[in-house]
């Protein structure tokens, strides 16, 4: 790949501002995405180029097909998803690379490997990365209560596939643990 020149920021707001400032520090042209509602946002004003997304719905910033079309039209060399939105999207990472661009983030295999919390924990332990006391994947409330007896309450039950606090429940007692599994959020 030739020297990077144009970088698409596939995010908005404060996250995009940080990515744009990094591009500026590296003398790279930053290309920001925005919807009509975000047209006056700071990330749009700071970017070298702003591209209006055609779709006005909340999914506009995650429309992979539309974003890749913009990348082709704008001769983009790299795409930065920031965090959230497309940052953990295996398909986006693969398609960016498949289109000959650099995906600024972990490669698709790494995203896939750490996408599930129990797998990420196992990989961290295998790599001798310190992790907090906890358990692996639990199949039911009975197993969770057995593991909880080895820990001190307050504990957190976390859905393996949840991100950003999704599927996370704080448990102060055995009753809370049983209740958390009774909600079927973790099965």
How many domains, in number, for the residues? 2
Q: What is the tally of beta strands?
A: 7
Globally, the shape reads elongated
Based on secondary structure, the structural category is: alpha/beta
Strand content: 5-15%
Keywords, please?
single chain, 187 residues, alpha/beta, Rossmann fold, Dna Ligase, domain 1, 2 domains, 5-stranded parallel sheet, two-stranded antiparallel ribbon, 8 helices, 7 strands, Biotin carboxylation domain-containing protein, ATP binding, biotin, ATP-binding
Give your account of this protein's structure.
The chain is α/β, with parallel strands linked by helices and 187 residues long. It folds into 2 domains: 6-111, 3-Layer(aba) Sandwich (Rossmann fold), CATH 3.40.50.20; 131-182, ATP-grasp fold, A domain (Dna Ligase, domain 1), CATH 3.30.1490. 38% of the residues lie in helices and 14% in strands. The strands form 2 sheets. Strands 3-2-1-4-5 form a 5-stranded parallel β-sheet. The chain has a two-stranded antiparallel ribbon with strand order 6-7. Helix 1 links the parallel strand 1 and strand 2. The radius of gyration is 20 Å and the shape is elongated. The termini are far apart. The mean pLDDT is 88.
């Amino acid at each position: 790949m030739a020297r990077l020149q144009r970088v698409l920021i596939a995010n908005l707001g404060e996250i995009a501002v940080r990515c744009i400032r990094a591009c500026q520090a590296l003398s790279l042209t930053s290309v920001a995405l925005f919807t009509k509602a975000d047209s006056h946002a700071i990330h749009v004003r700071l970017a070298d180029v702003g591209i209006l997304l055609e779709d006005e719905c909340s999914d506009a910033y995650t429309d992979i097909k539309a974003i890749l079309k913009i990348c082709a039209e704008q001769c983009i060399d790299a795409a930065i998803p920031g965090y959230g939105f497309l940052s953990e999207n295996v398909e986006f990472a693969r398609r960016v690379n498949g289109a000959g661009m650099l995906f600024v983030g972990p490669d698709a295999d790494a995203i896939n490997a750490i996408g599930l919390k129990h797998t990420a924990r196992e990989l961290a332990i295998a790599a001798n990365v310190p992790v907090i006391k906890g358990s692996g994947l639990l199949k039911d409330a009975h197993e969770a209560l057995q593991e909880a007896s080895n820990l001190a309450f307050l504990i957190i039950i976390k859905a393996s596939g949840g991100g950003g606090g999704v599927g996370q429940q704080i448990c102060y007692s055995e009753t809370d643990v049983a209740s958390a599994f009774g909600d079927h959020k973790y099965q």
